[in-house]
Amino acid sequence: MLKPLKVMYFNPVGTSGYDQMFADMVKDHKLPGTEVHVTSLPAENGAFTHIEYRAYESMVTGGTIRAARAAAKEGFDAFVIGCFYDTALHDAREMSGEMIVTAPCVAAVEIASSLANRFGIIVGRRKWVNQMSSTVKDIGQYERLTGFYHVGLGVNDFQTDHAKTNELLIEAGRKAVEEDYAEALILGCTLEVGFYKQIEQQLGVPVIDPSIAALKRAEYGAILKRQCGWIPSRKWSCEAPPEAELAQLGVFDEGEAFGNRIIVAA
Q1: pLDDT tens by residue, the chain, 266 residues
Q2: pTM for the complete prediction?
Q3: Pairwise CA distance, residues 153 & 170, whole Å
Q4: Residues pairing with 34 in the sheet
């Protein structure tokens, strides 16, 4: 009997307030043979409820890297960094050994690119666009992007009034599809969980929920690693720090890596 795939869905904020929402998403979308641990940072890493500012993001980067290293040591097959900024993605990969590491933006763009030639990204605030543009360019898919469409909502606003959120997302999506000819849409915040189905029904194009995309891409990568032996590279730009040097520094293994954990069994 094969042992279950083990995926960690890591919420890079120092509060557990949204962990159950992500756990519910996991229950609805994971494969039967996958065990998923939904985790978040300890409050002492900064009790942020969002990291939409670069200053906040910089404060949780160290904790995110530590969490990825801890997950690898626990034997996880894959690790998801649950923020559409793809916070510390490359940094965490350096520290993750043979564990797959992915994040919502890179996962959602990869999936959208397999479903359509052109896609648009709906974001909460104009503030986010500069940083997210850099990520899409780094992925190599910027020429296929019709644009970013902001709805004037901060991260914490998406779940406060679902009817208003849904209306704003559909309005932005309609502009992307009917005016800029987007053939697929990506929701550019992990807290937009659950809205994609209504938008698809209204607009008739695939709408990618980034939380689901990151979870499924993590599962897929873990399956490929097991079945095909495709282990993440640690050569050249992906080179990991020497273990002897990490042991001497000590900082990456100090303290508790997780403040909360919800286990969704296989």
Answers
A1: 578 999 999 999 999 999 999 999 999 999 999 999 999 999 988 889 999 999 999 999 999 999 999 999 999 999 999 999 999 999 999 999 999 999 999 999 999 999 999 999 999 999 999 999 999 999 999 999 999 999 999 998 988 899 999 999 999 999 999 999 999 999 999 888 888 999 999 999 999 999 999 999 999 999 999 999 999 999 999 999 999 999 999 899 988 999 999 999 99
A2: 0.96
A3: 14
A4: 5
CA distance 150 to 126: 6
Q: Quickly tell me which residue has 């990568």 as its tokens.
A: 221
Query: What structural domains does the chain harbor?
Result: 5-103+212-264 (3.40.50.12500), 105-209 (3.40.50.12500)
Continuous H helices in 95-192: 104-115, 129-139, 162-174
- The residue with tokens 């894959």 is 78
